[in-house]
């Protein structure tokens, strides 16, 4: 995999293919959609600074780390259990998995609480890498 766009497509495809809770709407960054009315996820992908990991015969291998950032929203004032169940399901899709050139590592959950818009928010962050080669 050589581009961040290809990594994004692979991550979005994996989430779409493996998400089974039909009661939770999947949302992606910069999509034109109505304001959500029920449980939903919002996927964001953050690319971090790449670094060189090898060199051989005019080819440099770079590693691009990143974060799969999934915001999990449930109705406010209904407790935290459901948000944790959803975040755990997201973690199960990615944590420790390899697909294509992407290697996912640990998943971390962060409870943000009431978002002021009627939802309770828990974020699930999964750290990942993908490598690419560049000829010189």
Describe the structure.
This protein has 136 residues and is of the alpha+beta class. It has a single domain (4-135), classed as STM4215-like (2-Layer Sandwich). Helix content is 21%, strand content 49%. It has 2 helices and 7 strands. It is elongated. The chain starts with a helix and ends with a strand.
Summarize the structure.
By secondary structure, the chain is α+β, with helices and mostly antiparallel strands. The chain has helices at residues 4-18, 81-94, and strands at 25-28, 40-47, 51-56, 59-75, 98-99, 102-114, 119-135. The chain has one domain (4-135): STM4215-like.
User: In the CATH scheme, what's the topology name?
Assistant: STM4215-like
Question: Which H/E pattern describes the elements?
Answer: HEEEEHEEE
Return the average pLDDT rounded to an integer: 92
Looking at the structure, what is the overall shape? elongated
Alpha carbon gap, first and last residue: 17 Å
CATH-level-4 superfamily name? Phage tail protein-like
What would you report as the Rg, rounded to the nearest angstrom?
Answer: 17 Å
Number of strands: 7
Using the 3D structure, state the CATH architecture. Answer: 2-Layer Sandwich
Runs in which pLDDT lies below 50 for 5 or more consecutive residues are: none
Task: List its salient traits.
7 strands, STM4215-like, 136 residues
Write the SSE topology:
Elements: H1 4-18, E1 25-28, E2 40-47, E3 51-56, E4 59-75, H2 81-94, E5 98-99, E6 102-114, E7 119-135
Parallel strand pairs: 1-2
Antiparallel strand pairs: 2-4, 3-4, 4-7, 5-6, 6-7
């Amino acid at each position: 995999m050589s581009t961040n766009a290809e990594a994004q497509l692979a991550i979005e495809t994996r989430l779409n293919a493996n998400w089974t809770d039909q009661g939770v709407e999947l949302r992606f960054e910069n999509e034109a959609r109505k304001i959500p009315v029920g449980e939903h996820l919002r996927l964001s992908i953050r690319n971090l600074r790449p670094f060189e990991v090898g060199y051989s015969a005019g080819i440099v291998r770079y590693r691009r780390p990143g974060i799969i950032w999934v915001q999990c929203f449930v109705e406010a004032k209904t407790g935290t259990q459901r948000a944790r169940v959803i975040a755990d399901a997201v973690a199960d899709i990615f944590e420790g998995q390899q697909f294509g050139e992407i290697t996912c590592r640990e998943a971390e959950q962060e409870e943000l609480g009431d978002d002021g818009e009627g939802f309770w928010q828990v974020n699930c962050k999964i750290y990942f890498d993908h490598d690419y080669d560049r000829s010189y």
